Each structure stands twice: as C-alpha cells, then as structure tokens.
Amino acid sequence: LLHNKWRNMSENKIYDVECEQVILGVLLVSPNYQKKIFNSVDKEWFYEPVHTQIYEWINDRYKNNSLVKYHVLNREFDILFNSIIKNPDYGTTLLNAAAGCVDVEDYVKELRDLYVKREIKKVVEGKDRNNINKVFERLTTLNELSKKATVNTLFDAEGGVNRRIADLKIPDKSDRFIKTGIFEFDEKFGGLSKGQLSILAANASAGKSTAGLQFALNCAKAGKKVLFFSLEMGESEIMNKILANLCNINSFKLTTGNLHTAELQDIEELGKQDWLRRITFDYTTNINQVVIDNQIKNFKRKCGSPDLVIIDHLHIMRDARTHYNRNEELGNITMDLKNIVKESEFAMLLLAQLSRKDKKLVAENINNNRPELTDLRESGNIEQNGDLITFLFRPDYYTEKAMQGLTGYELERAKAVYEQTKNMLWFLTKKNRNGSTGDAKTNCYLEYSRVCDN
Length: 454
Known about the structure:
Shape: elongated
Radius of gyration: 26 Å
C-alpha cells in the first residue's frame, strides 16, 4: 500500500542533486536553519556519497559548537573542499544553489520523500521481499517516517507569543488573508486565510468553477500569484472563460468562434496585460495530492511561493492508497491537502460538489434549497478537515430546474420567483475555524463567466 502511495512521483526519480545541494548550501550560510535541519535530517537521506560526507563534516562541527558561516571559517572549509572533497570550487556551487532557496523546509521534505522512495524500492526488489515479517516491519517504519514532520514542531508559549508580536508589527506580515475581490465576502470573512484549507462547494453547473476562476483573476489583478489546478477543464475552455469574463463576450460566441472585429480587437488588447502572467494553470488529468504537492514545490522554485492555490475540484481526485469507501478516500485527500497548506504562506481553495439530491422547490420559500454541511458529497471527513466551508447558493438555479415539471399557476409563480432572484448569488459560510459564519451576497453571470458585485 505504501508503495502505491509513491508511485505517482516523477517517473524513475529517486534522487535530486540540486535539492541536496540547496540544503547543504543553506547549512553553510544560514546559522538560523542549522538547528532545524540537523534535528530533522539523517545523513542516510542523501543519495550522493559526497553530500553525505559534507553533511557529516558540517554536523560534527555543529555539535562541537565550532561551526560558523562559510565565509568566516574559510580555513576550515578549505580543508573540507580541497583535501577531503578534492573540489575547491564545490563550496561556491553549494552557495549558488542555496541562493535560489525560498523555503528550505520544502527541500527537506523532498529529500525525505526521495529517501523513502528509494527504501521502498529496495524492499520490493530486495532479497527479503518474500519475508513478510521483514517487509511489513520495514514498510511500517517508512510509513511513519513519511508522515513525520520534517522540522521540529515543538515550541514554548513565550517564544511563540513574542514571534507573533514581531510578525504583527510588520505591516506586510499582519495580513494573513488573501482578498477574493468580492466585497461582502472579504468584509465578513476576511478573505481566504493563508495556511488554511478553504472549501467552496456547489451543485454541478451551479458556478463553482466560475467563482474559483473569478477569485484567481481578482487576486492576479491585485498583484498576487495564483496557481490553478483545473482537473475538469482543458486550456481552451479555461481561456474562453477568461476572455468572456474580461472582454464581456458571451461564452457561447467564444466557443463557436463567431466574433465581431471589435471583439477580436478587445481580445488582442487583453493579451498585452502583464498581470495575466501571475496566474499559472495546470490542467493535468487524474491528478492527486502528491502531484499537487510536487507542482507547488516546482512553482516555488521558479516563481517563489504562490499567494493562492485553487483546485477544481475535489471529487475528481483519486488517492493512490486503498480505502474502504469513498468517504475515507476523500478524507485522506483533504487531510493531505490540509497538511500541504498548513504553516505555508499561501491560501488554498478547494472546490467541491454537493450530493445529487435536490430539495423540492417551494416557490414561496426559496430558502428551502439553501445547502447545509450535510449536503457535501461524502461529507463526513471533508467537513472535519476544512477550515472554512462555503456554499454557493443561486436561487435561480433551483427555480429554473423546478420549472421544467410545472404547468399553469405553479409555473407562473415559479417564473416570478426566477425573475426576482435572477443572477443573484450568495456565499453561505457554514464553518469558519477562525472567524464568523454567515452569508455574503453578490451577482453571478454565467454566460460571461463572471462573479461580481455589480
């Protein structure tokens, strides 16, 4: 089972020289990270023998309180790189690798994960692979290691309070929310909190992808970096939605390609907007949380940490592990995503579906159709793992579906309700671990792939 968990990592990738160089480079120049790394990394995690040798050498001096920055202790390091490693320029190579490091903890986690993968490979291919007891014991150990935090998570309250006070004194650090650009949502709930898993749920075709894409566009316009995983839409469909939203062109016209000259000119002008570079899309199908984690790491290395990660949507994802039922599977997926975003500098928005059960429409009381937490599809573990859970509620969505089976007076009454509520949308926040719950109103125009306040 553990072998299945890792099979979706990059094909045949069992080590990463650059990752090892980054960690060693950080050890040379960043004393603040030395304790964290030495307390969490074992020398066996390094694949390259020369890197194991360098790590042991630095660790020995750390234990003896004789390790300082690389440029200060030139003579000691000359011995290491000239006499032991026999490559006088390798110290510079390590420093250059560390210069691009955004978050060393990500590199430590990858180093650990690749070590686990190599060890699993040894178990399933080794001479003891038919010895059930030995295989079970080793895989159990590796399973515990794979779930273990890569840094020391213990801290005392006094230190934690003082660090938080220092953070709050820095204006850029005090804002822990990513604004969605929907005024009432941001005003009531703050936005999407960094380091937390937010879930936005709706019925199929009710507008959750449109809302998620609107959040992405609003954040990018505000100067934020967005990573959008689209498991359901391909590049053409995503681009059609963006063009419809920003150029005020009906989505159907973009699908057919039947555009006027003025509309084509507007599209050409849009292509010159630099802020569009801040949104990166991944529309890989059959994606799981391991692939998402790796793609976030790749994004960090190239662009720095994203501000917002959006996944569209949960109920398409599959976990490589074996489960008793779908509820357990989705619980494991959401827990893994929660662990990915925890303690990060970005917010994560996970889109999800509601159960396929529409409540009977009562024209006089449209609120009978308002979603509840129990309406989440395979809801138990999803509800538990989500930090913020919000539902899209569009009265016209339910009214339009109900009108299909009505006639006479009932049909006329339903039409009246439809006209009164057309294009209205509410965000119904039913769970908010660190804030208030309630409703936030805005508008939705699906034909233009737009969610907006006016």
